[in-house]
Amino acid sequence: PQLFLGYDVEGAGVVYPSVKFSPTDHVSFKLNYAGYWGASEGGGYFNPFSKNDEIWLQTRIQF
């Protein structure tokens, strides 16, 4: 598992956790999430993204 956390002094931020699962040496799956928050007034750097959270599954097949 990995975790990235960013914070703006104006009260905005981002959290980016991920979990990786490798059932074999050649196949892996990684579940990712990007969550943003910010104050409605002023908002800080991440506020324009505060309603644009993302979740996705990354699949890697190596041969």
Task: Specify the helix fraction band.
Answer: under 10%
Shape: elongated
Oligomer: single chain
Structural class: mainly beta
Q: What composes the largest sheet? A: 4 strands, antiparallel
Low-confidence stretches: none
Cα gyration radius (Å): 15 Å
Number of domains: 1
Q: Strand order of the main beta sheet, please?
A: 1-2-3-4
Give a count of the beta strands, DSSP E runs of length 2 or more.
4
Q: Write down the overall mean pLDDT.
A: 88
Order of helices and strands: EEEE
- Count of discrete alpha- or pi-helical segments spanning 4 or more residues: 0
Q: What is this structure's SSE topology?
A:
Layout: E1 2-7, E2 13-21, E3 27-37, E4 54-61
Antiparallel strand pairs: 1-2, 2-3, 3-4
Describe this structure in words.
The chain is an all-beta fold and 63 residues long. Helix content is 0%, strand content 54%. It has no helices and 4 strands. The protein has strands at 2-7, 13-21, 27-37, 54-61.
Quick rundown:
With 63 residues, this protein is mostly beta strands. The protein has strands at residues 2-7, 13-21, 27-37, 54-61.
What labels would you give this structure?
single chain; 63 residues; mainly beta; 4-stranded antiparallel beta sheet; 4 strands
